[in-house]
Amino acid sequence: MALMITDECINCDVCEPECPNGAISPGEEIYVIDPGLCTECVGHYDEPQCQQVCPVDCIPLDPAHKESRDELMEKYHLITAA
């Protein structure tokens, strides 16, 4: 599954630089995660780095974008192939 940022986000700016895929960016009101780029850090780290640094715990799994670990790894390979 891709991750998502909920409206509890306080715009603290700590998650964006932690994303190895560049999936996190500022939205109109809060930061957002591009599900096409989010691999939950599969291929890079054992745990999603944005979740590790988020001080308000507002980055859950996105139920609208269910993916298996294998699918996330395939996405990682496509993203990093360039």
Automatic annotation (TrEMBL):
Signal peptide: none annotated. Coiled coil: none annotated. SUPFAM superfamilies: 4Fe-4S ferredoxins. One of its GO terms (molecular function) is 4 iron, 4 sulfur cluster binding. GO terms for cellular component: cytoplasm. InterPro entries: 4Fe4S_Fe-S-bd, 4Fe4S_Fe_S_CS, PSI_iron-sulfur_center, YfhL-like. It comes from the Bacteria. Residues 1-29, 31-64 form the 4Fe-4S ferredoxin-type domain. Keywords: 4Fe-4S, Electron transport, Iron, Iron-sulfur, Metal-binding, Repeat, Transport. PROSITE patterns: 4FE4S_FER_1, 4FE4S_FER_2. This is 4Fe-4S binding protein. It comes from Halomonas ventosae.
